[in-house]
Amino acid sequence: MTRVFVSIGSNIDRENCIRGAVRELAAHYGPLTLSPVYESKALGFEGENFFNLVAGFDSVESIERIKKTLSRIESQFGRVRRDNRFSARALDLDLLLYGDTVRHDDRMKLPHPDIQRYAFVLRPLADIAPDLRHPETGSAYAEMWQRFDTGKQEMWKADFDPRA
């Protein structure tokens, strides 16, 4: 079994999409460890606020199989892939960590670079895996969050239960 962490984000019909994603992930992978949900302003474009959280689970599936499952769930909730990275989206599921795997190729990067780039990814990951260490830097996620410069990345805990 490999410990897997996935980021979940939405700013279109966000309550429905986040709850649906959590339901689908739990149905496919079993028990989930969920971070609190954070709300943040759209970054890089004008749009509705995002809800973001991180889910952790154990899996025997390959990285490629997990990526296909995440893509299927995104499509199920209306995800339309665009060239513009900064845009509104019904559902965004990103594979953050697959155990201690380090992989940098044309198809994916693990650990996901957004862990070190965005507060809305690092903070929820640090909430549920504070002592886990980044496979490349060796730093614990709680330590990384303490050092993180939130700058213009304003976010706050949302009053939202994704399991309800």
From TrEMBL:
Domain 7,8-dihydro-6-hydroxymethylpterin-pyrophosphokinase, chain residue ranges per copy: 5-130
Signal sequence extent: none
Pathway(s) of this molecule: Cofactor biosynthesis; tetrahydrofolate biosynthesis; 2-amino-4-hydroxy-6-hydroxymethyl-7,8-dihydropteridine diphosphate from 7,8-dihydroneopterin triphosphate: step 4/4
EC annotation from Swiss-Prot or TrEMBL: 2.7.6.3
GO terms, molecular function: 2-amino-4-hydroxy-6-hydroxymethyldihydropteridine diphosphokinase activity; ATP binding; kinase activity
Entries under InterPro entries matching the protein: Hppk, Hppk_sf
One GO-annotated biological process of the protein: tetrahydrofolate biosynthetic process
Domain of life of the organism encoding this protein: Bacteria
Alphabetical UniProt keywords: ATP-binding, Folate biosynthesis, Kinase, Nucleotide-binding, Transferase
EC top class named in words: transferase
Protein name per UniProt: 2-amino-4-hydroxy-6-hydroxymethyldihydropteridine diphosphokinase
Organism: Candidatus Muproteobacteria bacterium RIFCSPLOWO2_01_FULL_60_18
